[in-house]
Design brief:
single chain; alpha/beta; FAD/NAD(P)-binding domain; 2 domains; five-stranded parallel β-sheet; 22% strand; binds flavin-adenine dinucleotide
């Protein structure tokens, strides 16, 4: 390997980091481009609610980083960043342990340019009992945990000699994740009955309640979209309560700030995000959500370190506002950093244009097989709103575009056709 090669190390192979590593890798090769992730497989995070409902099989959907590194020409390093030495330009990785065996010891990775793209996780806002009793959907493991819990409770209810009590699911947070999960669970319940749980009544057997603190669900999006989403959820039998602040979570119930009780068998927490806490220990400036504060060029206060995606606080053009934690933001930021990092690798002048976010609209899928109900609206204004099949096709194309960016045209096409064919031989919901 060339000793002098400028090393770009990207930490976090998610919606933003993986696209950046793949595109840079194709251009500059593995001696320049390094991707660090604490998982061995990548999943596009906006699909996690489908993994949780069992309508998407993680064992089919996950993409191996090692394979993508080989195909795209970057070096993959499996490990979790825990700290850094900015003077020595090193990041520190925790040991990788599997089944009590140390696979990789603690390591250090040197960089010339560092891009931090480690995403976010659920924010419990210090709510008593939330981290203990609520399930979050931050990772494939958590989504799988929810899926198994959901399936197990349905099977037990189906096998009980008495007429089974309905399974009560409370979802805290009426943003896109909460809305999409609620609708997906209704579809999964119908599909599960189809596969033999015939004592279980999909209409009354699962009671879903969606609790939102603001006065409308999808409060970051235009009011028209909130109203349409609420209508679709209610049509699917989901109870929607707004202006409800959850004050504590217990094993079998939630309590709101007025003392109201909401009994539940499973509680899902989808009420906001924060960046990983280790970011606050790096000596970089962070906000109250541990997000790294960057300027409009995605630069931190260290000239060799950039941050993008959910873990970065980036000014928006609207005065005093910051970009939302969305996959399309991370994607556009990755695209913006391509020529910037390319110039640094070549030792050329870095383009001076600041990052500008183009809001192409936010898609919310309210179910996907039983009656299409995808909605779309822009975060920054109220100028357009589409729903139905058009929005559904656009929703699917977002995922496809991510695959195109990281896998290229041939692999994406083969995979899309393969999945279409596999659908014919697989159940509509993952049953094991
Ligand atoms: C259920 C759900 C549904 C969503 N739906 C939508 C949607 O419809 N549309 C939309 O625009 N957005 C949606 N989002 C938000 C979207 O997923 C995020 O905004 C987007 O994934 C952020 O991209 P990112 O690259 O910043 O981080 P991520 O995609 O979260 O990737 C972060 C990566 O960093 C890795 N990592 C974390 N910590 C470390 C560490 N210490 N060391 C090494 N690696 C680390 C993780 O393994 C991960 O691969 C949804 C999110 C969820 C949870």
């Amino acid at each position: 390997m060339d000793e002098q090669a400028h090393k770009v190390v990207i930490v976090g192979g998610g919606a933003g980091g993986l696209e950046l590593a793949s595109k840079l890798g194709r251009q500059f090769g593995p001696e320049h481009i390094f991707l660090v992730d604490n998982a061995s497989d990548h999943i596009w995070k906006p699909s996690l609610h489908e993994v949780a409902a069992g309508t998407l099989d993680i064992h089919r959907e996950g993409l191996s980083y090692a394979m993508m590194a080989k195909d795209n020409g970057f070096t993959f390093i499996y490990g979790e960043m825990s700290g850094m030495d900015r003077d020595a330009r090193l990041i520190r990785l925790n040991p990788v342990v599997d089944d009590n065996h140390v696979i990789f010891p603690a390591r250090q990775v040197s960089y010339d340019t560092l891009v931090i793209a480690v995403g976010s996780r659920s924010n419990f806002f210090g709510t008593p009992g939330a981290s203990e009793f609520a399930v979050a959907l931050d990772s494939t493991q958590q989504a799988e945990r929810f899926r198994k819990l959901f399936l197990r409770k349905l099977v037990i209810a189906n096998n009980s000699p008495e007429p089974p009590d309905p399974l009560r699911i409370a979802i805290v947070g009426g943003g896109a994740t909460g809305v999409e999960l609620a609708a997906e669970l209704v579809e999964a319940s119908h599909n599960i009955r189809y596969y033999g749980l015939d004592r279980f009544d999909p209409v009354h057997g699962v009671q879903i309640i969606l609790l939102e603190g603001a006065d409308r669900i999808l409060s970051a999006l235009p009011p028209k979209m909130s109203a349409a989403a609420e209508r679709l959820l209610r049509q699917r039998g989901i109870e929607v309560r707004t202006s409800v602040r959850v004050a504590s979570v217990q094993e079998k119930s939630l309590t709101d700030s007025n003392g109201g009780q909401y009994p539940c068998d499973i509680c899902v927490w989808a009420a906001g995000i924060e960046a990983p806490s280790f970011l606050a220990t790096l000596g970089l400036e962070v906000n109250h959500l541990n997000q790294i504060i960057v300027d409009r060029r995605l630069r931190t206060d260290d000239p060799n370190i950039f941050a993008l995606g959910d873990c970065a606080q980036v000014p928006w053009s609207k005065e005093g506002e910051y970009l939302p934690a969305r996959a399309q933001v991370a994607h556009q930021q990755a695209k913006y950093l391509m020529p910037v990092l390319g110039a640094r690798i070549r030792g050329a002048e870095v383009p001076a244009e600041p990052f500008r976010f183009k809001d192409y609209g936010s898609l919310v899928a309210v179910g996907h097989t039983r009656g299409v109900g995808s909605l779309m609206g822009v975060l920054s204004g109220k100028s357009w709103f589409v729903e139905g099949l058009v929005a559904r096709v656009m929703y699917m194309s977002l995922h496809l575009m991510h695959h195109l960016a990281v896998l290229g045209l041939v692999r994406t096409s083969v995979m899309a056709i393969g999945r279409l064919l596999l659908k014919r031989s697989a159940p509509r919901v993952k049953l094991h």
